[in-house]
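Re: weekly structure request thread

Next one in the queue (256 aa):
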Amino acid sequence: MKYLSSSTIGAQIFLLLSIIGSVIAINLYGFSINTLLLVILGYFIYGCLGIVITFHRHLTHKSFNTHPTIVKLFSLLGCFGGTGSPLAWIAIHLNHHIKSDKPSDPHSPHYKGFKIFTLDYHHEVDSNTKWRMRDLITDRYQQFLHRYYFAINIVYSIILFSIGGFYLMIFFHWMPAAVTAVMSNVVNYVGHMPNWPGSYRSHSLNDKSSNNFIFAIPSWGEAWHNNHHRFPRNYMFGQKWYEIDISGLIIKLIKT
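Done, posted below.
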């Protein structure tokens, strides 16, 4: 597999539709506390369990082991987060760590700027990245999620629509996916801006990775970014008592 890519145009269209659909749904139904809780639940399921815990800390960095059924289920949930298939996501993130804050870093705000709504799922797999992903590239389940990524999301939306109409589809899938995509890009930006409000560096590294206490809770602990770059194989990103890492605490419950 020379390329691990999903349609960037398709991803941008889905994000745009999610935002437009969210605005329409709010005008139709309002935005109650129950609706907010539904969106947060979706964001937790797709963003925290799917992307942060499974895509990032388990599949990419192999920082913990858990039951294979949990990996499969959470990998599927992460697909609903709107930030690419597991294989595409992992390939891009590995490239980020290998080339952190260099011109070819796919995330560095110092070269890519502030692209809060930009989702680029196209990534050419070099030999180093391919070697690191050798077990995942040959995994039939991960291949299925990658090959049918957009179809899976369409089917999921149809299922939610058939159960709870436009309301459930938007507030339990599209809006949480939009929040997940935006927060992912916020972490990629703020996590490499040492002078951003709330940012600080606990470790002196050859990149500009930074911790940020403002976005730590909303990102499920991902904003302890400088800690992560120093110890990428550590499933707990928070290192000090006040660095609360929600994802790390959940991993403690499911790891084997």
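The longest strand covers residues 199-200. The CA atoms of residues 109 and 189 lie 5 Å apart.
Next request, please.
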